[in-house]
Amino acid sequence: MYKLLDRLLARVIKLLTLFSLLLLAFAIIFIFRESLVFFQEVSIFKFITGTTWNPLYSPDTLSIFNIILGTLYVSLIAIVIALPIGIGCGLLLAGYTGGRPSRLIRGIIDILASIPSVVYGFIGLLVLVKFLENNLAMAAGESVLAGGILLAVMVLPYIISTCNESMTKAYQTHSPYSHALGVSKNYLLRKIVFPESKRAILAATVLALGRAMGETMAVMMVIGNAPIAPKLLGKCQTIPSLIALEMGMAQVGSLHYHGLYAAGFVLMMVLLIINLILYFVRKTIVT
Questions:
Q1: DSSP state, residue 11
Q2: Is 41 within a domain?
Q3: Residue among 258, 154, 262, 255 at smallest CA distance from 211
Q4: What are the Cα distances from residue 188, in Å, to 109, 146, 225?
Q5: 276 found inside a domain
Q6: Would residue 20 count as lying in a domain?
């Protein structure tokens, strides 16, 4: 009876995995097909390297280089802010908390991950944007910095959860031996637990970067949505916010409509390239 249930469960899991892969393949094929219509009119090189996005004029004004830069800039700022904090929190939870306090903190982290992005965006618009505007003498608080800080808060739970699982396992493995040898907890975390968690840290970086580059609503509410060259205290636009803002206004079948799909296709390719780079870095550095 149990063997029959095991075989049945294994087949169900395989079918669900296949279904997920088919959904992913369908999404990629659909976006590529819609983008192909655009690339027949505008070269992909011109689309990626041009700096003007104005769908009301000629096809030559449909290019997203500044928007790609804005997407990368905001996401990298978020990672730079969130990664050290996430690693530190992971080490703290692994070595200095246990029992009920650890469960309480992890519960709070899970709650942070489940908050809708529009709530983060609303808080960012009312609190973060106003704070930057008042304290940095900015004409408007909407900026790359605001988007990066807000995204850092949003991706932090993913980094902490991914790092903490590996760090806790490493700490529990080596803790008895370190106590027997008289090694301090601080030394154990810095010299043993942290190096053994490099794979988890890279995995957390990939997960957080993908989450940050794909975020739409919260970022759209605090970056100003201007398709210009991004500056730290200036406005910018990301590819997800561009698609969210203009897809409802684009006429179905128009070059503008297909251009937005092309922008989404470029975003997928950028994420794929970044993931491949980090994959090879992990194979090269982490043994």
A1: H
A2: no
A3: 154
A4: 25, 37, 46
A5: no
A6: no
In the three-class reduction of DSSP (H, G, I as helix; E, B as strand; rest coil), residue 247 is classed as coil
User: How far apart are the C-alpha atoms of 150 and 107, rounded to whole Å?
Assistant: 21
3-class state of residue 169 by DSSP: helix
Q: Which of 71, 65, 35 is nearest to 49 (CA)?
A: 65
pLDDT digits (tens, 9 = 90+) for 102-141: 788 888 888 888 888 889 999 998 999 988 888 887 777 7
Helix extents (H) in 99-224: 100-114, 117-123, 129-135, 144-181, 185-188, 194-196, 198-214, 217-220
Would you state the structure tokens that stand for residue 99, as one six-digit string? Answer: 């029992």
- Six-digit token pair at 39? 């690339």
Spatial separation of the C-alpha atoms in residues 68 and 219, rounded to whole Å:
14
CA atoms within 13 A on the CB side of 35: 19
Condensed to tens digits (0 to 9), the pLDDT of residues 247-284 reads: 888 888 888 899 999 999 999 888 888 888 877 777 77
CATH of the domain at 99: 1.10.3720.10
Q: Give dist(CA 227, CA 235) in Å, integer.
A: 8
